Amino acid sequence: MKIAFFSAKPYDKTFFNKHNAPYNFELQYWETHLGPHIANAVDEGTEVICAFVNDKLNEEVIDVLAAKGVKIIALRCAGFNNVNLETAKKHGIKVCRVPAYSPEAVAEHAVAMLLTLNRKTHKAYNRVREQNFSLNGLLGFNLHGKTVGVIGTGKIGKAFCNIMLGFGCKVIAYDIYEDQELKDKGIQYLPFKEVLNGASIISLHCPLTADNRYLINKESLAEMPKGVTIINTSRGGLLHTQDVIEALKTGQISYLGIDVYEQEDKLFFKDLSSVIIEDDEIQRLMSFPNVLVTGHQAFFTEDALAQISSITLNSINELIHHLPHKDPSVVLA
Ligand code: NAI
């Protein structure tokens, strides 16, 4: 049985080839992303398409895939906003995803961003390579004793809270649902505004929804203490980029770490080192010495990739053989 992978990177090949041993599926890797421009090139008889976050599976594409004989769309990610589920259902195409994989990978990256910004290890690394051992400009602050505000205490937010507790921080949180285990550990749930008022570090771990787009904007930034540190590993649309740039200019934000960016689909996962980037907002953000941008790499650990590939192949196997699924959130259509 043939599985065609789109947006395939060398690391996808490594992990999927390894975890394919028990199944022996035929794996075909396409570097290009999937969209109307390429759907016609899919081989007749390909039964499974394996797609990633920036592959476009709209009505036009799914109609073509259905005509080619595709029976399953397997997303090797949690989000599914890039798939027209109704069209898939209409053609009887099953759609599955990986709802959860290594929340610690993302939580640890958020901590890495926080420590990098605070202790400036990236600057120290470059400095000592030029035999400059001066400490000027490298002053940080202790995390121990600071109050950290966590927005969203699901799987990733909870892992982040636990790490911050280990650092000796006071953790306050806002979520629609309160986690009893975190409360038992001393984490205090407060209304959104009070978390903003009370924390000198804020980390975002809630999904992007229609209701919380631009959660961090001019008004919410004004609620935070001057010199706040903000970390966003969730979704770019949670921040109003222009308001954040203004707050960086005034010093309202001391440090900003972002692994996600609202317009990231035009930039991330690509080598654009010899290209003129037309997006002035990301260029402005990257020009600040107190801003750290990473290209949606928070999930990118060996452990997470191993889980993504084994869960994806297992789900495909279950769907092909009509086996029952243990986790109902895996199959979307
Ligand atoms: P989850 O579903 O386990 O937890 C999300 C939590 O946010 C839930 O407790 C929910 O009640 C809460 N929530 C929802 N709306 C909220 C709001 N308006 N305000 C406050 N809390 C709200 O999700 P998980 O696995 O913890 O992932 C969180 C987010 O992390 C994902 O939605 C995704 O955007 C992002 N993510 C980023 C990755 C990266 O590589 N940078 C990788 C994986 C996920």
Can you give keywords for this protein?
binds 1,4-dihydronicotinamide adenine dinucleotide, single chain, 12 strands, 12 helices, Rossmann fold, 333 residues, alpha/beta, seven-stranded parallel beta sheet
How are the secondary structure elements laid out?
Blueprint: E1 2-5, H1 10-19, E2 26-29, E3 48-51, H2 59-68, E4 72-75, H3 85-90, E5 94-96, H4 103-119, H5 121-129, E6 147-151, H6 155-166, E7 170-174, H7 180-184, E8 188-189, H8 192-198, E9 201-204, H9 218-223, E10 228-232, H10 241-250, E11 253-258, H11 280-287, E12 291-293, H12 302-320
Parallel strand pairs: 1-2, 1-3, 3-4, 4-5, 6-7, 6-9, 7-8, 9-10, 10-11, 11-12
Helix pairs in contact: 1-12, 4-6
Summarize the structure.
The protein is an alpha/beta fold. It has helices at residues 10-19, 59-68, 85-90, 103-119, 121-129, 155-166, 180-184, 192-198, 218-223, 241-250, 280-287, 302-320; strands spanning 2-5, 26-29, 48-51, 72-75, 94-96, 147-151, 170-174, 188-189, 201-204, 228-232, 253-258, 291-293. β10 (228-232), α10 and β11 form a beta-alpha-beta unit.
What does this entry look like structurally?
The protein has 333 residues and is an alpha/beta fold. It folds into two domains: 2-101 and 301-320, Rossmann fold (3-Layer(aba) Sandwich), CATH 3.40.50.720; 103-293, 3-Layer(aba) Sandwich (Rossmann fold). Helices cover 36% and strands 15% of the residues. It has helices spanning 10-19, 59-68, 85-90, 103-119, 121-129, 155-166, 180-184, 192-198, 218-223, 241-250, 280-287, 302-320; strands spanning 2-5, 26-29, 48-51, 72-75, 94-96, 147-151, 170-174, 188-189, 201-204, 228-232, 253-258, 291-293. The strands form two sheets. The protein has a seven-stranded parallel β-sheet, with helices on both faces. The protein has a five-stranded parallel β-sheet with strand order 2-1-3-4-5. α1 (10-19) packs across α12 and α4 (103-119) crosses α6. 36% of the residues are buried. The mean pLDDT is 96. 1,4-dihydronicotinamide adenine dinucleotide is lined by residues 78, 100, 103, 106, 151-157, 174-177, 205-207, 209, 212, 233-235, 259-260, 296, 298-299.
